Amino acid sequence: MWRPCGVIDETYEQDLAIVRTFPQWTLTVAALGALALLPAYVSGVTLNTVNHIAITIVALHGVNILTGLTGQITLGQAAFMAIGAYSMEMMVRYWGLSFWIATPIAMLITGVAGVIIGLPSLRIKGFYLAMATLAAQFIVPWIIVNVRPDLTGGTDGLTVSPPSIGGLQLTSQESIFYLCATVAVFSTVFARNIARSRYGRAFIAIRDNDIAAEIMGIAVVRYKLLSFFLCSLYAGLAGCLYAIWMRGISVEHFTLHESIWYLGMLIVGGMGSVVGVILGAIMIRSLTILVTYIGPWIAVFLPPGTGTVLELGLGPIVFGVVVLAFLIYEPHGLARIWERFKAFYRLWPYSY
Amino acid sequence: MKRLSLSLVLMLLIAFFCMQASCFAEKPESISIGVMGDFSGPYAPVVGPTRPGTLDAWQYLNKEAGGIQGIKLEPILKDMGGKVDVGQSQYNELVSMKPKPIFIDMYITPLAAALRNRFVEDNVVSLVPGAGESLYPVGNSYAYYALYPEQIGVVLKWIKDNWKKKENPKFGIITWDTGYGRAIVTEEFYNWAEKIGVDIVDTQLFGIRDVDLTPQLMKLRAKNPDYLITNSTASGPLAIKKGLKEMGWDIKLINTSGGDWGTAALDPSLFEGDLVALHVKSFDEVDDPSIKTVMTYFTANNRTEKDKSLFYLVGWQVALLEHKILNQVVKDHGWKGLNAENVMKELNNLKDFAPLEGITKMSYSEKRRSPTVARVYKITKGKFLPVTDFVETPDLRPAKFK
Amino acid sequence: MLFLQYLVAGVLTGGLYGLIGLGIVIIYKSTKVFNFAVGALMTFCALVCVALVTNVGLPFWLALPISLAFAAFLGLLTERVGLRPLLAQPILTLIMATLAIESILYGTMLLFWEGYTISFPQGVLPGQTIFLGPIFIPHEFLYAFIVATACFVLVGVFFFKTQMGLRMRVTAESHVVAMALGINITRIFAMSWMLATVVGALAGIFIGNRLGLQVAITPSLAFKALPAIIFGGLDSLAGAIIGGLTVGILEKMAAGYIDPKVAEITPYIILLLVLLIRPQGLFGEERIERI
Amino acid sequence: MLVVQQIEVFFQHVIQVLKGVSLTVPPGQIVCVLGANGAGKSTTLKAISGLLAAEDGRVTDGLIEFDGKRIDNRLAHDVAGMGITQVFEGRRVLEHLTVDENLRAGNLGGTRGMQSKLEQVYSIFPHLKSLRKKAAGWLSGGEQQMLVIGRAIMADPRLLLLDEPSLGLAPLLVKEIFATIERINREFSTAILLVEQNAARALEIASYAYVMENGRIVMDGEAQVVKENPDIKEFYLGLGEFGTRKSYKDVKHYKRRKRWL
C-alpha cells in the first residue's frame, strides 16, 4: 500500500477506504464506466473472451487466497468449479430453483467440499498437499461421472439453460458480460478486503511460518480451513458463471491442466496480489486465444501446403515461449511491472 | 526490463488487432462454412484427417461442381487444440461473421454437446458426430454417420443372420470409459440385442490411458463370448488386441467408425479378420468410381498414408452434403431464402442421397437426425473388404425421443 | 489362480509406473522441481526413436541408444534454456517454467508428427508371451519391468555410492551449502535433467510400443505415475519403484475384484489415505522441523 | 592472503548494503569482524565466498583478492575450489544426510585422503563419531555447529569464513567452540575470518579486529588495542570506562551515540 507523499488519513473512514484519493476515485469511476460501455465497442468474439477472463478472475481470487496468501498449493481449482457448476445446474434442473437462489447454495456446497479436501492440510504441507488437491481433481470428476450418471448425465454432461432476470433471458454475450463483470468487480473488492483484514494478515502469517503463527495465537487450523472454504466459495461461483457462459458442462471442461494453469496465471500475475490476479488472468487467457491466430497468420506467408502443419504447432510454441520468457525476465509477475509503472508515472520525469 | 515489458504489451496489442482484423477478412463473394475440430488435441488421431478431406472436397466442389451457382464456397477451419473454451470462442467468432455461415461442422463431441442449444439460438445448422447427446432432443444438429450403437447393430444383425449354431451368438463388450466409449452402452442397445436373439454376456470398461487390460479380458474370457465389441479408437483397440494376443485368446473384435484404416494401420497383423461398421465405401475398393474421384484429389494434394482414414472421407461426405443442400435451397428459394429454416427443411426431406456415385447414403427426417445406413467390413491383410452392401441400421435412438 | 494373474499384471504395469516415477523423483530430489514436462519429454524421445526406425530405417538396437542420447541432449537443453535462467527463483516459478516447456515441446511435436497416433513397426520388441502354467507373462511388460529394475539399481548405486551421487544429494538438501562446498550446482541440475529424461525416454518407448504414441494423450500418461511417487515418497528412489508396483497391483486387484471403473481412482484414494497417515509417503524423508 | 578493498555491495540493484569495506586477512591468523545486527558482516562474508549471486546481490565497486587473484563476483564453487570455505550462520547442516555423509560432502574435491581426513575431524570432535550414522537434522544445536565446522575442515581450507558460530548456544558450548576454532587455527595453520557478536570471546582468540556499522568499517586494530578502546568496552563488551560492569541504568545511549569517524 504505497501512496504518494502528502496523502494522509485523517479519519478512520479514510483509513478504511479502498479508494482514497480524488485521482483514484476519478480513475475508478472512469474504469467502471469504460467497463460498462465495453459491449458497445467490441465484437461478440472479444466479449466472449472478456467474459471468460472475468470468470477466470473470480476463480483465481480463490486460488490467490489459498495459495498466494495462505501458502497452501492447490491443484484442484477446476474440480471445485465442477462441483459448483454441477450442483447449481442440478438444483435448477431437478428442484426448479432459479439460478439466483441456486448459485449461493452451490457456492456453500463447494465451500464445504473445499473444507473436506482441505483437511489433510492440517497434517501435510507444500507439494504433498498439492498432491492431495490433485487427488480431488481426479476423484471429483469420477464421482460426477459414475455415482449418479442418471442425474449428472455421466460422461455426456448437462446442457445449461440460461438464467433470466426480470423476464430477460441472459443468452447474449452482452448480458452475460454484465453479470460476469459485476460479479468479478465485487469479488475483487471482497478479495481485496480479505487481504487487508485480520483474516488476510492471519493467512499471511500462516504462509510465512505456520508454527510461528500458532505461537502468536493464530488458530492455524481454523484459518487454514477458512482459507480452503473461501477458495472453494470463489471456485463455486466461478463454476456457476462458467456453466451459463458455456451453456453446457461436462467433466471434460474441468481438467487437471486447467487447474494447473490457474496456478500458472497466479504466478504470471504475481503471487498474493489482487492486481496480479486480474493481470494474470487477462494475460494467459488472451494469450491462449491469440496464439490460435498466430499459426494461420504465419501460414499465409508460406508456400501453400507447408502451412497446415505450422498452424497446429505454432500456437503452443508461442504460448510456451512467451510464458517462459516472462518468467525469466519478470519472475515476480505482472503485478511488479504494474507497481513499477505506477512508481515511474508518479516520479516522472525525475526518476529516483 | 522496462523496455521488455513495454514491447511485450505492444506485441500483445498488435496481435489483438490482427485478431480483430481477421474477423472481417472474408470475401463477400463467397459462402463460408465453419469447420471446427480437435485437429491437434487428444481426438486428433481420429478427426485430424478431416482437415485435408474437407479442403480436398471443397476444391473439387468449387472446381468441378462450380460452387453454388458459380459462387465459391470457402471452408473456415478452426482447430481448438483440445481446449473446450478455445472452441467456444472460435464458435462465437464463426457466428459473429458477416454473413454468418449457415453450416458449422463439429468434429468434437463434447463441444457439440455443450453448444447444442446455442445452434438453435444462433440459427445455424451443425453437423456433429453420431453421439446421442448432441442430437437429442431434436435441435439444429445432424449427425454425419449413424449412432454408434446403430453401427454395431448392423454387424450384430449380420452375424445373427449368418449364424449356424443352435444357441445364440454371445458378445462381450469392452469399451473406453469415456463419453465416446460409453456411447454404445445404452439401454436401447441391450434391449434390441435381446430382441434379435444375441446375448451380451458382459460389459467391461477401461481407461483411455490404461496400458494393460488383463483383469477386464480375464473376466470376459470367463464368460466365453464369441465376439468382442468395442467403441474405441487408435490406442484403445490396439491395447485390446495386444492383450488378447498375449493371453493367447483368438477372438475377433467388432468396432464402429473408430476402428477405421488409421487404427488398423497401427499394426495390421493384429486386426486380421476383425469386423468394422463404416458408413462409407472403402479406400480398398480401388475400382469404385467414387473412390477413384476422391483418390485423384488425395494424390494431387500429396496427402500421406496417415490421412487415409474414415474422417478424410467424412470431410468429403459433409462437404458434398452441404453443397447439395445449399444448392437446392438457393434453387428453390433464391439467395434471399438461404437461411437455417430452409436448410433444415431441405435436410429433413433428404432421402437416400448418394453423392459421388454412391460413396455413402444419407437420409434424415424431422425426428431422426442421423443417417441410417452402414456397411460391414472385414479386415483382410490390412485391407477393408465389404461383406455387405449399405444396409439399413436398426433405430436405436434414445427411446424417449422416438 | 486369477489372483496370481492379477498380481503378475499389476507388478508388470507397476514397473512401468515406477520407471516414469523414477524420472520425476530424480529431478525432484536434486533440484526440488516437480517436472510437469516429464510426459512431453518422454513422448518426444519415444517419437524420435520411432522416426529413427521408420523414417531413417535404422535397426531398433541402433535407434535405441541414439534416441537415449537424444533424450540426454533434450534434458540438457531443457535445463539450459528453461531452468538455468531461473536459478534462485521461488520453486513455484520453476514448476511453471516446466509447464511452459511442456507447451513448447507439445507444439514442436505437433510440427513434426501432427495429431496422429504413431506406432512402432511390428516386431521391434518380440511380442511373445511366456506361459507359466495358466499364468501368462507378456514379453513387452517383462522387458519394461526388467529395465525399470535395472534403472532403479543403477540410479541407486549412482546416488548412494559415487561422489557425483553425494554431490546430487547435497544439492538436494541445500543449494547454498552445496555452492559453498564447491559444488557446481548448475552442472548437477543439468546432470539430473539428463538422467531423468533418459529414464523417462525408456518409459516412453515401452508405452509407445504398447499403445502407440499420440502427442496429446501420451504425455498425460505420466500422471498415472503421480500416486505411485506420492505413495513411495517424492524424494525416494526406492519409493518410486515400490510405489509404482504397489499402485500397479492395487489397480489390477481393484479392476479384477471390484470394477474396472473403480480401478481408475483407486490410486488416488490410496494417495489420500497415505497422505493422511504418512504425509511424507512410505519412504520419503521425514520433514525435520525444529524451532 | 585475503585482501578486500573498498567493496560496495548492492542487492537487487537498489539496496546498498556495503559502502566501501576494506579488510585484510594475513595467512594463518584469526581476524574477527564485530558489529551489530544488520551491520553487513554476513554480507561481507558472502561477497568473499561468492554466494551473493544466490540472493540477487553484486559487488559493484572495489575488489577482493585472494592470493593475488581477483575473486569478486566469481562463482561460489570456483571460490570454494581455491580454498575458501564458508560456515554459515545458523548451522546449515544437510539435514537428511547422516553425519558421516555430511562430513564426506565437505571433501568433494578429491576422494584421496578422505578416510584420514575423516579420522582427523573425529579426533577433533570425538562426540560426532558416536553419531556418525544419525541424520544430521536430529542433532542438537551444539552438535550441529561442530558438524558444520568439521565439514569445513574436511575441505582442507586455507581460509575459513566463520559466521557467528556462537549464535544460540549455551555459554559452555560457546567456550568449547572457540577453543576448537583456536585449535584448528593452530594445528592446520588455517587463516580464519570470524564474524561474531560475542565480542569478548572473539577478541580473545583473534589477533586483529574490525568493527562494522551500517555497512562501513568504523574501526580496526590489533585485538588487544581494540579491546582497550573505551567505546568498544562500552558498546560491545558492556563494561564501563573503568573496567567495571556498568549498571544498565547508567548507560545513556541516547546521549552518547558515538559517531565514528
Walkthrough of the structure:
The complex is a heterotetramer of chains A (352), B (402), C (291) and D (261). Chain A has 2 domains: 42-254, no CATH class; 256-352, no CATH class. Chain A is 74% helix and 2% strand. Chain A is built from 15 helices and 4 strands. Chain A has helices at 12-16, 22-41, 44-69, 77-94, 99-118, 126-146, 149-152, 173-196, 198-208, 210-215, 220-246, 256-269, 274-299, 307-329, 334-347; strands at residues 158-159, 164-165, 168-169, 248-249. A two-stranded antiparallel sheet of chain A has the order 1-4. In chain A, strands 2-3 form a two-stranded antiparallel sheet. Chain A is globular, with a radius of gyration of 21 Å. The mean pLDDT of chain A is 85. Chain B is α/β, with parallel strands linked by helices and 402 residues long. Chain B folds into 2 domains: 31-146 and 289-371, Rossmann fold (3-Layer(aba) Sandwich); 148-278 and 376-401, Rossmann fold (3-Layer(aba) Sandwich), CATH 3.40.50.2300. In chain B, 43% of the residues lie in helices and 17% in strands. Chain B has helices at residues 2-23, 44-47, 50-64, 84-95, 109-114, 116-122, 132-135, 148-161, 179-182, 187-196, 214-223, 235-246, 261-264, 289-300, 310-333, 340-348, 355-358; strands at 30-37, 72-79, 103-107, 125-128, 141-143, 170-176, 199-206, 227-230, 252-255, 275-278, 373-380, 383-386, 391-392. In chain B, strands 6, 7, 8, 9, 10, 11, 12 and 13 form an 8-stranded mixed sheet that branches. In chain B, strands 2-1-3-4-5 form a 5-stranded parallel sheet. The longest helix of chain B has 24 residues, at 310-333. Chain C has one domain: ABC transporter involved in vitamin B12 uptake, BtuC. Chain C has 11 helices and 2 strands. In chain C, strands 1-2 form a two-stranded antiparallel ribbon. In chain C, a hairpin with a 2-residue loop joins strand 1 and strand 2 (135-138). Chain C is globular. Chain C starts with a helix and ends in a 14-residue tail after the last helix. The model of chain C has no long low-confidence stretch (mean pLDDT 85). Chain D has 261 residues and is an alpha/beta fold. Chain D has helices at residues 41-49, 76-81, 99-106, 114-124, 126-129, 141-154, 171-188, 199-205, 223-228, 230-235, and strands spanning 2-11, 15-25, 30-35, 57-66, 69-70, 84-87, 159-163, 191-196, 208-213, 216-222. The longest helix of chain D is centred in the C-terminal third of the chain and has 18 residues, at 171-188. Chain D is globular. The model of chain D is unreliable at 251-257 (pLDDT under 50).
Quick structural gist:
Chain A has 352 residues and is mainly alpha-helical. Chain A has 15 helices and four strands.
